[in-house]
Amino acid sequence: MNSEQVNLPKQNILIIDDTPENLHFLSNGLARKGYEVKCAISGSIALLRVFAELPDLILLDIKMPEMNGYEVCEYLKANEKTREIPVIFLSALHEVSDKVKAFASGGVDYITKPFQFEEVLARVENQLTIARLQKQLQQQNLRLQELNEELLKSNQELEEFTYIVSHDLQEPLRAVSSFTQLLAENHQSYLNSEANEYIAFIVDGTTRMSQLIKDLLAYSRVGKQVREFELTDCKMVLADVLADLQITIAETSAKITYDSLPTVMGDSVQLAQLFQNLISNAIKFHRPEIAPLIKISVELKNNEWLFGVHDNGIGIKTRHFERIFQIFKRLHTFGHYPGTGIGLAICKKIVEHHEGRIWVESELGVGTTFYFTIPQR
To answer: CB atoms < 10 A from the CB of 297, how many?
Structure first.
């Protein structure tokens, strides 16, 4: 027995052979190696013993009265309770056809008589090791499945919690904002400059909080929509996005060019949100006194569409490449660049919902490119 088996419980081997000399020789040898051995001189007796106590491995002769070894093995493999027990055929039959038939009936190995005990022992240990590793793998897979189900449930509960909390926050926040604005409009003349400054802070804070809640709601909804993916013309999606951004584009003198965009299988609403977030970022983070130049590229590569949104903006430090896709992670103060820090997290979630990838390449002071992929379907 190898060193891996020293601390394991005794493993149970059933030997099925109608020759008493073979049973005696093998059972004594395997028992000396630390195995618990049971014997049976026929197929029918063997099946009774198998179902009384499942063995870890079976050594099975082929030529036996009543039931031959092939029939015994086929019976075991047809039963859910016993099909995983490894069966090693041990027979005087040496034709290739005999061995093929043995493997076809469910055997995992074949030893030809006359045999050497050392060979039998090596093959037994090998199959028991394989069986043990397979069992460990099954247990790990089961545990992984349980953990995955727990994670999915936890994520669902978190998304539902986020949606409920964010939705319920909207009403009291609107009330605070409305009454503060009424206070400013109707009583501004009665208040000193310091009080009016405080009111401005409140209005500004409630506006930012409202936008944060809207973005949080948008983030929580990505991937929860029940809309089926459909053929979506990215050129039409982009046209709608640019129409929505026309005021911002005009104010910044931004110039936007794009390749001939493809039709993909996807969610048109989410893809519009993806383009809008990336283009808005490219406009927002432009260098002072330099008009934004934005190029949208696309190419078919390895059965997926590779999109790129290139800009000539302020750029991003390499150490921040992964951080920017995390929710609420901002690289700049609100005073310099307004925003909630959720936009790129939403982009990542949308791309992953479309079974794609998203990443960034950038050079500080030169510009940034956001790449994302959409599978070709």
So the answer is: 15
